[in-house]
Design brief:
Rossmann fold; three-stranded mixed sheet; seven-stranded parallel sheet; alpha/beta
């Protein structure tokens, strides 16, 4: 049986690399092409052990480079596209929004055009619950909640989602959109909350907490997210949106305290810092639709997932130390500069 050929964009990043790892180590019937620009957040070391697998192919390229994307789609015939590629750090979008518009909006449209022109059968856009904005103390985001982004990052992802929707409505091109809650787990870049706090605690450095630390997020283990994405790709109805949540609402400060408890570090390491502009107070996902229509539910409790994640960063200290020092960037040029 011939493998289904998937183009995974942004596959060297946190979620994308976990998804590729799942496909090639736990599933059957897939051949993966990973198109990644290798920005600071795209780390090929995440998939270093899979480079010799004949089902894995890496292409260094930018989804906003129309020539690069067109050439790739002319060279290879893909059965599906799953778009993880995105600038995704809110703080960076506040400092400079243009890269987020170029990659997240223009890049998505270029991918859509190339996929539609070459008859790719399914296009899955991996989005975020941040497109919905901020919730009050009660309620949950559903797939029909209004889109009210509050940061340049979330605004760019909202625009991309609307372009994906337009491809379905205008051209009847079979697109799907997923919107997930906050992810955590192995290989997450240490600028994000959980890996940042783990790494700082291991080095006995201050743990910076925005504002009063009571911002609430629904936390989803990256492995649960990957299973949900594959479920949507394989069984989802074209034109539909599926929310993916972990049913784990936690205040940021409580997560930081849990990390310190697991590591046996003192709470005196916590340092409160000025809140960032437009900081959404609460996100919470209603994942009833994907459960009822596709049969997916998360398998991780947050307590189990957080403890496993902390131990991963303890055991793979060399990985995040190389990221923090910038040494991992040397791997880019050594392995891929001539490709």
């Amino acid at each position: 049986m011939q493998n289904s050929k998937l183009l995974i964009t942004g596959g060297s990043g946190f979620i994308g690399s976990n998804f590729i790892r799942m496909l090639l180590t736990e599933k059957e019937g897939y051949e993966v092409y990973n198109l990644d620009k290798l920005t600071y957040a795209g780390n090929p070391e995440n998939l270093q052990d899979l480079e010799a697998d004949p089902r894995y192919h890496f292409i260094r390229g930018d989804i906003s480079d129309e020539t690069c994307v067109k050439d790739l789609f002319q060279q290879e015939t893909f059965d599906g596209v799953i778009n993880f590629a995105a600038e995704s750090h809110v703080d960076r979008s506040i400092m400079s929004a243009a890269p987020f518009v170029i990659t997240n909006v223009l890049g998505t449209q270029i991918l859509l055009d190339a996929a539609r022109a070459t008859g790719v059968k399914r296009f899955l856009q991996v989005s975020t619950d941040e497109v919905y904005g901020s919730l009050g103390k009660d309620g949950y985001f559903t797939e029909t909640s209004p889109l009210k982004p509050n940061s340049p990052y979330s605004a760019s992802k909202t625009a991309a989602d609307l372009l994906v929707r337009a491809a379905w409505k205008t051209h009847e091109y079979p697109t799907l959109i997923t919107r997930c809650s906050n992810n955590y787990g192995p290989y997450q870049f240490p600028e994000k909350l959980i890996p940042l706090m783990i790494a700082n605690a291991l080095e006995d450095k201050p743990l910076p907490v925005y504002g009063d630390g009571k911002n609430i997020r629904d936390w989803l283990h990256v492995k649960d997210h990957c299973e949900a994405l594959l479920c949507v790709y394989e069984k989802g109805k074209p034109g539909e949106i599926y929310n993916i949540g972990g049913n784990n609402e936690w205040q940021n400060i409580d997560i930081v305290r849990e990390i310190l408890l697991i590591l046996g570090k003192p709470e005196s390491l916590i340092t409160y810092v000025k809140d960032r502009p437009g900081h959404d107070r609460r996100y919470a996902i209603d994942a009833t639709k994907i459960k009822n229509e596709l049969g997916w539910t998360p398998s991780y409790t947050f307590e189990k997932g957080l403890e496993e994640t902390v131990h991963w960063y303890v055991n793979f200290r060399n990985w995040w130390e190389r990221v923090r020092s910038g040494e991992y960037l040397n791997y880019y040029e050594k392995q891929y500069s001539s490709r």
